[in-house]
Amino acid sequence: MRAYRFRGIALCAIALSFSVACVMPDQLAQIQKDMADVRQQLRNVQSDQDDISAEVRALRAEVATDDDKVTRAELADIAVRVDQLSRDSNIFDERISDLGGRLDRLSQELQQARAMSSRPRYEPPPVAELPQAAPESGAAEAAAPLEALPDPEALYNTAYADFSKGNYALAVSGFEEYREKFPDSATADNALYWVGECHFSQGNFQEALHAFDRLLELYPESDKAAAGNLKKGLAYLEQNQIGQAIVQLRFVHSTYPGSDEAKIARDKLISLGAPI
């Protein structure tokens, strides 16, 4: 069985400029409009895919129930139609995955934009200068001050902007630095998820699996857990590890019922001909 390849389509440049003190209302409105457009596209694609799945089931039922009434030519025609519908279903799977990723990125940007627009610019407090005693004869020189930590928001936003532009190596470096220096922050788990997405987008599926495993091990309650588990299943598919992929997709379907990830996992299992 051939490997399934999911590649993010080239997105329009939607990264916001986070170097200013706040985000203007028209920028927030544009992000919200983009999110509404993507949601509508996602609904349309999922509706088309449901129609295809229903037609495939109907064709299979027709062959199963009326096999003695179907001529050889009709069987060949039905087989061609089923094969074409299956290919169309795979294309819709890819579009759903891409649109879901874009919607996730837009949601992240909207959250960050709202946060920036609602809080004042950070001004570090002044540092009091302490008198220094004269060093005693033979005493070692005073130790150099510790290197100041980078601004966490700026570090994360820079890494995310690199990801949005396809600068995956820079994005991985930035997200890894953020996770290392701010492991207890609210978005440390997101940083690991985006590391996995960067590797996945580059076709480095084993590295992507490693990143998603780190996410699930270090942050089991993360809101990215469902997406990370789904991406693991897709990464197994990309490496043609069909059996492992089916196990992983079933886990997503049963563990996160009702979620978008569970629906994608179900549709993928159906396209693989695997029982759910």
Give structural notes:
- This protein is an all-alpha fold and 276 residues long.
- The chain has a domain of 100 residues.
- The protein contains 9 helices and no strands.
- Helix 2 runs antiparallel to helix 9, helix 5 packs parallel to helix 7 and helix 6 packs antiparallel against helix 7.
- The longest helix has 47 residues.
- The two termini are 19 Å apart.
- The relative contact order is 0.10.
- The N terminus is likely disordered.
What is the structural class? mainly alpha
Care to count the β-strands? 0
Mass-distribution shape: elongated
Number of helices: 9
Uncertain runs are 1-24, 119-124, 138-144
The termini sit apart by 19 Å
Q: Into which percentage range does the β-strand content fall? A: under 5%
The helix/strand series, from N terminus to C terminus, equals HHHHHHHHH
Q: Biggest sheet: strands, sense, closure? A: none
Summarize the helices and strands and which ones pair or pack.
Blueprint: H1 25-65, H2 72-118, H3 152-164, H4 168-181, H5 188-201, H6 205-218, H7 225-238, H8 242-255, H9 260-272
